[in-house]
Specification:
Layout: H1 33-36, H2 61-69, H3 93-102
């Protein structure tokens, strides 16, 4: 008889998210630099060629794409990445504040 590994694997039903508690929506990620510092890349027609050195988060993606599409997200957690908006696109007031802070 082969030795047993002691591993336990739980396979949830499709579309079921197993969260450690009510405050977390996922269980991936570690406190190590390789897992907490990841690139966020936007590319495509109309996306300005900009390399930004400031800290951004994946939470900034939804409000940025919503602004691209002209959709309002009043309860968004992230911030609009103003530098990723094409010229002539209507910008939220927060873009004027962030561009003034960069100067």
């Amino acid at each position: 008889m082969p030795a047993r590994s002691g591993d336990f694997v739980l396979i949830p039903q499709p579309h079921v998210l197993l969260a450690p508690d009510d405050d977390h929506a996922s269980t991936h990620g570690t406190p190590y630099e390789y897992d907490t510092h990841v690139p966020l890349v936007l590319f495509g027609q109309g996306v300005p060629a900009v390399r930004q050195g400031r800290a951004v988060t994946p939470l900034d993606l939804a409000p940025t794409l919503a602004t691209w599409l002209g959709v309002t997200m009043p309860d968004a957690t992230g911030s609009v990445l103003c530098e990723a908006l094409p010229p002539g696109r209507k910008r939220p007031a927060s873009c004027a504040e962030s561009s003034a802070a960069v100067r």
